Amino acid sequence: PAAINSYINYTRAYTYFAVKVFCDPFSPQNAGAMRPIRLVAREGSFFNPKFPAPSGGRAALQVRIFDTINGAMAQAMPERAMGAFSHWSNPNIGGIDDRTGKPYVFYDLILAGYGGRADSDGPEGLSPVMNCSNIPVEVHETNLPVLIHRVELLDGTGGAGRHKGGSGLRKDIELLAGEGVLTLLGDRHESRPYGVFGGEPGAVGETVLNPDGNGERLGSKEIRTLKRGDVLSIRTSGAGGYGTPGE
Questions:
Q1: Which is the most buried residue in 104, 117, 157, 212, by most CB within 10 A?
Q2: pLDDT tens by residue, the chain, 247 residues
């Protein structure tokens, strides 16, 4: 029923990426590097949908594609595996700023932790499978009708392990315009990012509207209308750990 369908070209891209990370991470990415990889996805599934299946939310699957392959490849190449990623959140708010009469679009990517690895804890505040970065607070506040109340790592959300998973990230955003339409695209509000080789899973994420009052929990994928003064609190999941804690 939702637009979370990954057309085969999108599935293919993140499959190639995941396999290359394990098998040949430093050589050029070209047709020769991809030729040995065979992709099989049942037609009509959300990894290979048929027109007119909607796909506007397909980005939510990019991390899941990698995590699925990572979990399988870990059994053969444990030295290159890691716990599952923290999943990112992609909130967008659009409308007319009633103070200026001009339209605006607030677009954000909230990127958190990597899973624990064979030789180190998972790093934090990084893009998982695409070349993006956290957007500076100053850029948003200078150009858009928003006030960022906080950006902080969520201690204790990364899965425990010999090497712990990276922490989730919290970002609280207040709308200063009169009204705006919010769209949310995220994941891992219900299922925890897995750990590997005895590592524990990361904590689930959550999204809360007006957390300082009678906060309302929102879904990871939702459309809502916000009013001036509403505060959106995004809290991503933590990443999975690697190895048994205390080893």
A1: 157
A2: 468 899 999 999 999 999 999 999 999 989 999 999 999 999 999 899 999 999 989 999 999 999 999 999 999 999 999 999 999 999 999 999 998 999 999 999 999 999 999 999 999 999 988 889 999 999 999 999 999 999 999 999 999 999 999 999 999 999 999 999 999 999 999 999 999 999 999 999 999 999 998 899 999 999 999 999 999 999 999 999 999 998 8
For the chain, give me the number of helices (H) and strands (E)?
A: 4, 9
Q: Which long-range contacts (CB under 8 A, 24 or more apart) does 187-192 make?
A: 187/60, 187/63, 187/64, 187/87, 187/220, 187/221, 187/237, 188/86, 188/87, 188/220, 188/236, 188/237, 189/219, 189/220, 189/237, 192/159, 192/237, 192/240
